[in-house]
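pinning this so it doesn't scroll away 📌
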Amino acid sequence: MSAPHTHRPTPPPVPVWVRWTLRRLLDERELRVVLDELSELHAAVADRHGRRVADRRYRRQLRQYPVRLLVGRLRAAQSASSPGTGEVARAARSLLGAPALTSTIVLTVGIGIGGCTTIFAMVDALYLRPLPYPDADRLAWIYTDAPPNRFPFSVVDFQALEEQQTTFARVAATRSVGRALTTSDGVELVRVMEATPGLLETWGLSVVRGRTPTDAEGVPGSRGTAMVTTGFADRHLRGGAGGALGQAITLDGEPYEVIGILPPTLGPLARDMDVVPTLCLDPPSRKGPFFLRVFGRLRPDVEPGTAGRELRAIDDRLFPLWADSYQDRNASWGLMDVTESARGDAGPLLGVLMAAVGMVLLIALSNASNLLLARLGGRTRELAVRAALGASGGRIRAHLLVESAWLAAGGGALGLGLARAGVAAFPAVAGDWLGRAGEARLTPHTVAFALVLAAAGAVLFAALPALRSDGRHDLAAALRAGGRSSTAGLSRQRSRRFLVAGQLAIVMPLLAGATLLLGTFVRLQRMDPGFDSDHVLTMGVMLSPVAYPDAASRERFWQPALARIESLPGVVGAGLATERPPDDVNVVNNFDLEDRPTQPGQPERVAAWVVVGPSYFETMGIPVVEGRGFARADLDDDAPPVVLADEAWARRNYPGESPIGRRLYEGGQTTGPRTTIVGVVGTVPYNGLGTSELGAMYQPTANRLSDAWLMVRAAGDPNDIAPQVREELRRLDPSVPVVRPATGRELLHDALARPRHLSLLLSVFSAVALGLAVVGVYGITAYSVQRRRGDIAVRLALGGAPGEVLGRTLWEGMRVSLAGLAAGLVAALLLTGALSGMLYGVAPRDPASLGLAAAVLLGVSAAACLIPAIGAVRVDPASTLREE
């Protein structure tokens, strides 16, 4: 025994997680005894081997002690508990003894459950979770129904609806616009939702404090009033939401008194809207324009069908009164539940994504079942020993099911963690094309969905291994076989082949869909946008109606502004427009051709309607392909109205003919001045890339726009001139807001967000699914080689050609791949039609895309089969036969 220590060295500190765990497993006295014993051991090791070795051993023992203590407690609980509880613990220890298999199954199943739960969270937000409006099923969106389009209301429509309807308790109209907010810090653009009195009552909401506007405050000429959210009040008003009432805010130079404080959010019908000014509608001079989004709350005793019939009756009475300015007799009024209207076109998108992640989950479950089948083949001796010791077939199958339950629980827990991260990241990926992506949450619905998936997964991937283990295990036969295959092993092998073929069949539609979406993205990326995107800078400029109340004042701002911008170094030209390509269109106008009037019962023609300044086409690099451009005389107030059409418009309305000199009526009118087409320009999309079939019409203006897109053409990089352009505008008027600056390349990049993200998501899902399936192909071929090592050795020893062995082994694996590919091609032909609305320039059953997907699947499968096939050729006959 060593001499007593005169000075015991201080051991390293106990890690927080170790102390936390031990405090929950031991009482204070036991914890002190354990730490004292470890300290004495540390001192003894330090005396013999040095401080460094002692510290290292001490830390290792601290990390291992809680685990050993837990295992001991588990064993003690098992011996003292019922057989069922012991089986649970035994299954857990069995899985811990196979960490690679356990982690692989938990990871793959967790990825599948996490992906499905993420998409289901969006489904829950849009389809299962009620809108935050009381009795939302009584709240309807009312629209102009002109099949296949649904348009907003005009002022004429809304005023007639207010006066004549009897089926709604209240109706209200809104208009979402950008307004310049003036504060002590300067001017900023805010999105506001102007609303007629009664909007909150229609929606079933109320103000937090203050009041809603009265009907008298919605009359033209009344003082401006507005309601603001609590967040807006806290950011911009003195005293925050508590002291905001009675204060004034300035929008576009006009004062608005704050009369009510709204909740922080108004729900999906007013997403990201912080200010609600009272909308005052001036008496209309014609049926159009159509810009009002109208809502109505049905009376308690009225059915939607009854309200729809009344809407059509009011429209029938109204139509003859305004037929000279609107002749689309085919159009009427309709209504839709706001829950349905708030979803938009999300249904097909979510359907595709849910199908994709569902396929990944199916492959993950199939792979788990395959791995468990392979493990079952290697556990012949273990199960035979258990059977010899008295375990029944039911007890053995129960053990396998409990193992599957543990695996499913681990996959479910991991899936919930991944879903939490996926839900947080989803708005960044899909927010540009799925407006309500930010509403997804891990609600009880989504957690329950994940738990159901985990439970179903436990049953699905455990069923086949449990059925294949019938409990009749012969210990002597198992020991004699040494673990080699038997009839049961061949049966399990056939089951595994079937599972792998099924995985490949599921992968094929995913690969085909990803190929089609990638083809769409590539075609859109390569298409000519019709303007020079490399050298164009764009930005929105808003002139206050107070500071610039008429056309003359606006022209006095723009003429020097454009001249000063064009004089900047590196600037080639500048122009104005009301719309910005490729997907910033606000006005789609209806028209009637003089020589080809709309036939009775047919909808009127429509096109994007763009008002442009004199130098717009030169600035944007849009060529005039026929006729002429705008002349200086076209800008005079008394000049005959003229327009330019683009090539898409000409092809649609005058196929094979020239539209030059043809005349039309604007805005659905059939009387009054006619507009003459004087030129045709190149096609430029305004409603998204690949959506220019309606065409566009261009109307001239003498730079008199209030809300305009400023287009600047640069000699080099447009980003280099952006600061100087903004500075020139600021010098002319510091109160004018400049918003949403973007180069032409940035506009095209943003326009491709939806096809880019969709193709990326489906490609990722396809890659994951293909990887899982290929692992299965590799495993089947490798297992076959391992099972036939003796046969291969004999064949090679007797002079068999290595090439023959290689070919035969490859064919063993490729038979499974070809079977899966055949079934997958049929599935792809049936399923890819769901993508038709998301494709451009490629058919849903495009042979080239399907062929490419099939080639990828076969190529990767062949590579997976080749690796074990090469190993088969390299078998050493002598050593293998000695082992046998």
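📌 and the second one:
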Amino acid sequence: MINTNVIPLQIGLDQYTQHDDDIAPFKDVVQPEDLIDSKRAFNELSSLDWSFENENTSFLTHDIHTYPAKFIPQIPAQLISRLSMHGDLILDPFGGSGTTAFEAVRLGRRATSIDANPIATLIAKVKTLKLDARDLVELHQIESSLKKYLCGQDSSPEKLLEQYSDLIPDIPNRTKWFSDISCGELAQIKYYINQMGSENAKNVANLALSKIIINVSFQDSETRYVSKMKNVKIGEPTTRYLSALKPLLEKIRKTESSLRYGVVNFITANTLMLSSKEIPDESIDLIVTSPPYGNAYDYHLYHRFRLLWLGYNPDTLRKIEIGSHLRHQHEKNGFDVYLGEMSQFLMLAFRVLKPGRYAAIVIGDSIYAGAHYNTADSLAREADGIGFHVLGNIPRSIHSTKRSVIQAGRRATDEKILILQKPPVNQTVTLQSPPYNLKAYERSLRIREVTSLIGVIPLSKGDHLEVDADPRILTKARRLTFTHSISYKNGFSESTWQAKLENGLVIVESLRKEPKYVTHGIHPYKGKFYPQLAKALINISGIKEGATVLDPFCGSGTTLLECYLNGLRSYGCDMNPLAAKIASAKTGILNVDPDILAHQARELRKQIQHAPKPLPSVRDQFSTEAITEIENWFAEPAILKINWILKSIRSVSFGSSRDFFEVILSSIIRDVSQQEPRDLRIRKRKDPLSDADVFGLFIAALDAQYERLQKFWSIRGYSPYNFIPAHVCSGDSRKIEPFTTMGLSRSSVDLILTSPPYATALPYIDTDRLSLLVLYGMNSSDRRPLEHNLIGSREITNKQKQEIEHKLEVKDSVGLPAPISDFLVNLQDLMITSDVGFRRKNVPSLLSRFFIDMKSVLSNCYYLLKDGGEAMIVIGDNTTSNNGNTIRIPTTDFIEIIGNDFGLETMERIPITVTTENMIHIKNAITKNLVIRMKK
């Protein structure tokens, strides 16, 4: 349910725009095969200029807080782009301020970042935050409280010290490092932070506090740990805090759109002590890290006062800090101790990496007791001994403006990127089936999509499948449809993308297939094929990510949405304008910024809930030509409510979100009308409605769809694909213009996947007539030509019927291949001589027109398909009768013949069955279908 008690965000649309103009573009890996040739990968990385001398290294939130020795974001960005794929899990065992995690999420990966320093964890968390309205309210509250203090300043330093004494940390020689003014005001700020209920808001507030601590202390500077007395005035710490908080919030808000769906886990821990419970064996797809350099930095000292003021003990960090200069002096250890700890890290890396995957380590040389050590070469030898393939070192120079803020680190003028690979040993995995029962044809499709994607015929192990393959190719198992999890021999298991789409993050062992995930269930639509079938067929086709798919009969957009969810470029066309609107809404809404949609939904809900009583007696949202028919099919109160909802929708929304809201309204139109909801035909209720709960049904439908969107947003960061917007148009697929208008051209389509209207099977326009009436103002006279012109329509004019009948009587082929024309001629002869009603007498003419129309469509499909491209057509036979005898209409055979006649070679016919819906006239439904698979 949409929360209406949240204060709307008072920010313009530009705040939701990704501000990444200064971010260098990177070529992204999209296929597992790109990871297999390690030599090529290393050579490509070696050929790059790693100095990034002229690059902006502080874009978005990368510069929200000082941090010593962090590497510039372009380094992990390049490594992540070339050595991993979308949806992969990236680990940085020395995460620092979260540079790797940030770039991983920005590039569509997931991330785990580990660091022993809690200040580092805090910076990283805030870098990748998404703030909601409640967070902003709490941050504004602390801002208001502190401004009141500055205006009144009714508390002396002594009073603040006394009032908040328990919040002042135990700092040895406190007066040497902090004045009473600073201690009192910092403690007061801590008090207000502690009152916050939101963890996110608290983290932002604490980071702003961390930013000013050195400035209001007596420490000489960020990089010089000596005391130097300063004149800190009353109110200065608070003023500095407010000045730090504002730009911090601005940075976070500008960054949110880049990281909105990110999946990232921050762990504060000693990397060397991590167990398989915290990071499971062979669960990581890539490691990118810059470990502490030997004898270079003292993070615990750099952050000493920050740690103390935020409630941590610097000594805890000091005792475990790898590469610490002070620790080296205190323990009198040397490079061998540092190398030993780095060797432990390499053993961890080897344990958690999946076979065949990479580790990239950015490291500089070390100096101990005046001796120079080539750290990268030493680590390479250690890694080789552990079992890694050492691909080599890539040198990079460090520009003087991009060196460490710590003096000890400024001596470094270059460093190396060590690239390692865990040997690619084949793995055996178990592919767990969905919790619901699969039909026989679905079990067959399941095996076939595994074979197509992974290239191995799986072994059946009861309800599950087992495959042995290269671990990088096994990554494709995430894309399977009728597999919900992948289990490895070491006990590690991961869900497929399909399982997350259907169930979200919490896997529910539902015994029923979920066909309405994401926006698939936004609107009822008769005769559509279910999304799992569309996805399985896409997998079986073997097309690559980014390929182009066309559905010339897109209906409500099942194929288009599956293409969007699975990284494909899709185009769809339908003559029914409502169908095109549904398809456009269910795909387009996924590209709308969630904050914008949430704001619009709240405003829409508010306008509906606060509608005046009685409602204005107006119909200004309807076409004047449609009013009479609307009054015939809706009770007066329902008309006024529908008008109010339409007016509200059009006042608060635009583009895809407006389509989304209007389609939701359309989804309840039949239920609030005089139409018998279970009847496809035009038939009124036996008991007419005097009113209808239009508002309640609309809000319930809106809440249901919004909840599904929230579920999708929560798992979007797990996607193994880059999402590509769909293209939809309302047009006639018998003509080439709708396709060229969308940007398609000759030989531009990789796959055609469609389920055409079955000949004389469903009255699509009649079924949707009330929605067309309300949303488009199409009255019966406007709908009639559309109904007649629809491919597969059961309506035909006398003139059309007579022309076709004449051709059949004189044994004219009507432009169709001989087997089809012969069948139609014989059927015409049979119907003329039989005592049947006008509907059956129309069948030969209707079928002739249908196959002629399908010939035109298939001609366009052939023109648009690439050489070697495939057409998958989901269609079934139907029947007619004569004198009690059932006559099969071999639609599947005839469609195949037409395709063959154009040069589409039949690859196979895949038998499938479909379920039926609880509708009157269901006896006429077609439940046995084929997928006709043809190739150009």
